[in-house]
Design goal:
The chain has 551 residues and is mostly helical. The protein has two domains: 256 residues, no CATH class; 234 residues, no CATH class. The chain is built from 22 helices and no strands.
């Protein structure tokens, strides 16, 4: 136990130290995190409004626990999804692996300390979902002693079970795919397998629970009360169901089940780590290089001068795709989130047939074109910095940042190419999201979908420019592994959550304002975004020149 506590303390200290960019003063860092908290407030308010409304509507049907379980499910899924990317990086890809292997430490002790580190990271996402949800249930419910105790335990233990699931998947994949001698290739393929297995399992389990219920059965469950509708959530995260019932029903037995799931799953994970963790960890320092001899024709073709901005953009994209840490955290995240959001309804058969809607409703969609404009702005703000490409483009340079000053290419062109790489990936995600959405719900007219896409492009461009400005202001240039430059970049975190917060604000405003105001406000907002993007592009060179003097 002493070794475990000592190693956990050191691991947490190192991890918390990685959150600093190495240049900013302590007060500046605190202010940045305060600003990040403010960015989260619109998202938390939107979630509180959603849970409060649902509890109000479903209370008379005695389905309160179902609504709370749904929010806990969301919380568990967020933990599970982010852990899929975070667990391999901290458990296997960190540079302390060889050092820890040489120490007299048991595998379960090493993995347990790293597990605590990942759990601390996950709390930031978990609390953002739990706080508004629990606040809404406190407003609507008369809670007893067991409910209050359950709320406290849920805040501490809810992320353990989904984190254990992702840890077990990572342990199995890393242990039984040991035949790659190239470290980068091993990391990339192992992480890819982890994501495919995890998402496939989540889609299968959730779709199975819904496809077994027809609308009549769902209506019977809804009207029967006693939180019977909770059965449609499936049992991928049973801890969420038991936690919700313990809070709403003030049931000590449900709380015991919740505690058993959390602790037993953690124990199984540690036992599995004891058996196979070292097998997966050994050999990660190996790497190979591929030397290719170029012919005279190939050399001439490679040395032919091309457009420098396009060439630099290609270089940035190749770096993102070839580096496993960037591929998993920047590229994969950008594509997987919208696909997952739309693939689950597709698997479950949740679609809308346009022929079933009256023609009057179809015609009204063209009259409310400004809502599609708002929808596009929200999509662009949400997706723009979700992949952390532009908002970590300076941080990813690390100690090589000075080469940006020396190469024969204007700094403005280099920065523009970095922004273009972020815009390119985000725009592909915008297109993919809207196309898949139009395929699943073909009731929306094609011109309206095109309008949505155009608005999303404008907000995506602005989001990426803001992202690189944030990274120019506070880059994280001191890091030991590539994943740290992305995951522990305060500029990237602020850009992502700031974009989500702005998207939530726009959505809330569109819900509350009258139609006439929304019509003109949507146009004004789009024009303002265009103008601001042009200003940021024009001023980027001078701003970067001032910032580079500080590095």
């Amino acid at each position: 136990m002493h070794k475990f506590l000592s190693l956990t303390r050191v691991t947490l200290k190192n991890s918390m130290g990685m959150l600093s960019d190495g240049n900013s003063k302590k007060l500046t860092t605190i202010l940045l995190y305060g600003f990040l908290g403010i960015c989260m407030l619109p998202l938390m308010f939107a979630l509180y409004f959603f849970v409060d409304t649902m509890l109000t509507n479903f209370h008379f049907l005695d389905q309160d626990a179902t609504i709370l379980a749904l929010t806990f499910y969301i919380c568990c899924f967020v933990t599970f999804f982010f852990a899929i990317f975070l667990v391999p990086s901290i458990f296997f890809f960190s540079n302390d692996g060889e050092t820890l292997l040489a120490l007299p430490l048991k595998p379960e002790v090493i993995l347990g300390s790293k597990f605590i580190t990942v759990l601390i990271y996950e709390y930031s996402f978990v609390f953002m979902v739990l706080l508004p949800s629990v606040a809404a249930i406190i407003k609507h419910g008369d809670l007893g002693i067991v409910s209050i105790l359950a709320i406290l335990l849920v805040f501490l233990l809810l992320p353990i079970y989904p984190l254990v699931l992702s840890s077990i998947i990572s342990l199995l994949v890393m242990c039984f795919v040991p035949f790659f001698k190239n470290r980068d290739r091993f990391n990339l393929i192992s992480s890819g397998c982890t994501i495919v297995l995890a998402l496939g399992f989540a889609i299968y389990v959730n779709s199975a629970s819904f496809t077994q219920s027809n609308p009549q059965e769902l209506m019977e469950l809804l009207l029967s009360g006693n939180n019977s509708l909770i059965a449609v959530l499936g049992y991928l995260f049973p801890n969420a169901i038991f936690a919700a019932k313990a809070i709403v029903e003030n049931d000590i037995l449900q709380l015991i089940f919740f505690l058993l799931i959390s602790f037993v799953s953690l124990l199984l994970c540690l036992l599995l780590a004891k058996a196979i963790y070292f097998k997966g960890l050994i050999g990660f320092s190996e790497t190979n290089s591929n030397r290719k001899k170029l012919s005279h024709q190939e050399l001439g073709k490679a040395a032919h001068q091309k457009n420098r901005i396009i060439t630099y953009t290609k270089k940035e994209l190749k770096l993102l795709f070839r580096t496993p840490a960037y591929m998993m955290n920047c590229v994969a995240t950008t594509f997987i989130v919208p696909i997952l959001m739309l693939l689950i309804p597709l698997v479950q058969g949740v679609t809308i047939d346009a022929s079933l809607l009256p023609q009057e409703i179809m015609a009204m969609m063209n009259d409310y074109w400004y809502y599609f404009l708002i929808g596009g702005i929200v999509i662009g703000l949400f997706i723009g910095n979700m992949g952390l490409v532009s908002s970590t483009s300076i941080s990813r340079e690390g100690t090589n940042l000075m080469f940006m000053k020396y190469i024969p290419m204007p700094l403005k062109d280099q920065l523009f190419a970095k922004v273009l790489s972020g815009i390119f990936l985000a725009v592909i995600t915008d297109i993919l999201t809207i196309v898949l959405f139009g395929f699943l719900f073909p009731v929306f007219p094609l011109p309206m979908l095109i309008l949505t896409l155009a608005a999303s492009l404008v907000s995506t461009v602005l989001a990426n420019y803001i992202g690189i400005y944030l990274d120019l202001s506070h880059p994280k240039l001191v890091w030991e592994q590539e994943a740290t430059a992305v995951k522990n970049s305060i500029s990237g975190i602020i850009a992502m959550f700031g974009g989500w917060g702005c998207a939530a604000l726009v959505g809330i405003a569109a819900y509350m304002l009258p139609n006439e105001i929304i019509k003109y406000a949507s146009i004004a907002l789009l024009i303002a975004m265009l103008i601001l993007s042009c200003i940021l592009h024009h001023k980027m060179d001078s701003f970067a020149f001032k910032q580079f003097k500080k590095y």
